[in-house]
Amino acid sequence: TMVLTALDPEKLDRYRVEVYQLADDGSTVVYNGEATFKEGVFSLNTDQGSDGTKFSFSGTLAGKDTLSGEFSVTAWLVVKDAVIGSWHLERQE
User: Around Cβ 42, how many Cβ atoms within 10 Å?
Assistant: First the structure.
């Protein structure tokens, strides 16, 4: 789950983001970051988690209520692109 909150509701170009991920042990890990939306591209880099993991997301609008794109994960602050793939986000209210 990803929660976006507009930092400037008039410009709608920067967002505070919380990413909730289900861990292997069933607990929820929360990553925070700031996203931008410029020239049709959504970009997000999260702060590092307690284990040194960082996420980077980049994508575009894919319809009225959908964002999709590519992501990468840096693990333990040293393994860049430890995981890469695609993501899809649909707006919910």
Answer: 20
